[in-house]
């Protein structure tokens, strides 16, 4: 079986992106450490909330902060990172001056789905890698405002019944499972692909009364089942961890939606473009799925803020095409 390090070496070692391979190994180490911190939280006092809020005004969990520190700690020392943006940090993170800088901009959500962490339900980490536009000067926050099509790598770790790392460098999607006996991620899910058809959807239905008409129509038709216009029964799942939902979709198809709604026109959805929607959209598209706001391909959006939010609808291609068509009418 191929290890993550071997796989990366085979994919990037002989290219002009060998340094990206080294950076990706550091992400893998960070994810192992975060998984360990989650596993051991009940013993180490790392469960529960901290006394701080993040930039989104959300209460931080202690594990949010620990995961953020681990992600920065592992990825900053190897000489490949130029700067970082994290869900947990308001401003761009610049590397300490004594550390060597590289050419990659890292954006991450170190602990996604953290409302689930204290109830022992799957959570994850998400990361996106861009190239710094000008490597001769220090990186700036504006450098991160590149469309998702510019990503050179994206991945997530899923801390579930087993710990997995799923990665794309633009050459398909591959999944690795952590072998606890050796501490290595091993290639267990090569060339992952998303079924174009599905009868399973994921949406937080408690927001139903706020949805816009096309989303309401799509879900109504799914719920109408065999007797409705779709002529099929649909199943619903909602983990409230995007990583777990996207992973399920990679494994057996499905649609995940966190749409914008009518509550606050200034708030275009809940999820963040740079470190949630873009990396997940890159992975989903590389696996043959599709990803949209309802009206635009997510990967083509021009970001205007590092913590920008966006509506997200992704998964099985034929269903996403249907949802897009409902937004046109
Ligand atoms: P987080 O990054 O603060 O954990 O928020 C993102 C998460 C996603 O993983 C998940 O899809 C969504 O928020 C769940 O939202 P809700 O609590 O509305 O169900
Ligand atoms: Mg998140």
From TrEMBL:
Alphabetical list of InterPro entries matching this protein: FBPase_C_dom, FBPase_class-1, FBPase_N, FBPtase, Fructose_bisphosphatase_AS
One function term, GO molecular function aspect: magnesium ion binding
Annotated Fructose-1-6-bisphosphatase class I N-terminal domain ranges read 9-190
Q: What is its main location?
A: cytoplasm
| Domain (Fructose-1-6-bisphosphatase class 1 C-terminal) ranges | 194-327
In the record, the note on similarity to other proteins reads: Belongs to the FBPase class 1 family.
Summary of subunit composition and partner proteins = Homotetramer.
Protein name per the record: Fructose-1,6-bisphosphatase class 1
